[in-house]
Q: What sequence folds into this?
């Protein structure tokens, strides 16, 4: 429980906010806290066979891939497919650039929010985000019950999920990004006349297989 509390507390300070008009994501931080990357904060030792919080913060670090491989089954998202909606996109790492004050965001792909857990069969929400545009995540607003999601990872795995629920929230709502709950993927995009709200689409884990 201590590990869950520590990771959940960190996620309160970092939230992906998609803003189409600014072409960038901004970070929401607790009042007076200042912006910190998760890697700069202390983390409790991970439980055996699960990923620690530090393994999802800076994918470019030298030992990240090797440490992630210690999990039973886990991988970094490289491709996301919602076949019923015609969504088939490459996925790159999405991180916060403290110098620029922006999150990674572009017009030809989706992004894995690296402060969240890698795709895995054990626990937590993996957040993948993209613009609310046709050819990106706009079709999610037309999703139907029973829709399936496939997440292809960098180590040759396919994680499969089934659509569970969707909700529109105000920027800063982090309660739907559970770092220690059941394994799931949350796809996020914008909604509203001025992209002022966030649409979160949650998919429950069903299974994993080799490509």
A:
């Amino acid at each position: 429980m201590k590990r869950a509390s520590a990771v959940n507390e960190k996620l309160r300070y970092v939230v992906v906010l998609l803003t189409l008009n600014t072409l960038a994501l901004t970070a929401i931080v607790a009042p007076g806290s200042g912006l910190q990357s998760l890697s700069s904060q202390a983390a409790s030792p991970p439980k055996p066979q699960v990923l620690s919080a530090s393994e999802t913060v800076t994918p470019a670090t030298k030992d990240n891939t090797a440490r992630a491989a210690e999990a039973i089954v886990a991988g970094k998202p490289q491709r996301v497919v919602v076949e019923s909606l015609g969504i088939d996109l490459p996925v790159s790492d999405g991180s916060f650039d403290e110098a620029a004050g922006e999150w990674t965001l572009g017009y030809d792909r989706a992004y894995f929010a690296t402060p969240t857990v890698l795709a895995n069969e054990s626990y937590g929400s993996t957040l993948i985000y993209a613009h609310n545009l046709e050819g990106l995540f706009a079709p999610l607003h037309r999703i139907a019950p029973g829709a399936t999601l496939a997440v292809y990872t960098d180590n040759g795995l396919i994680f499969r999920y089934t659509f569970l629920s969707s909700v529109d929230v105000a920027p800063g709502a982090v309660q739907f990004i559970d770092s220690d709950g059941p394994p799931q993927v949350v796809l996020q995009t914008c909604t509203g006349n001025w992209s002022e709200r966030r649409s979160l689409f949650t998919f429950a884990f069903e299974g994993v297989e080799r490509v």
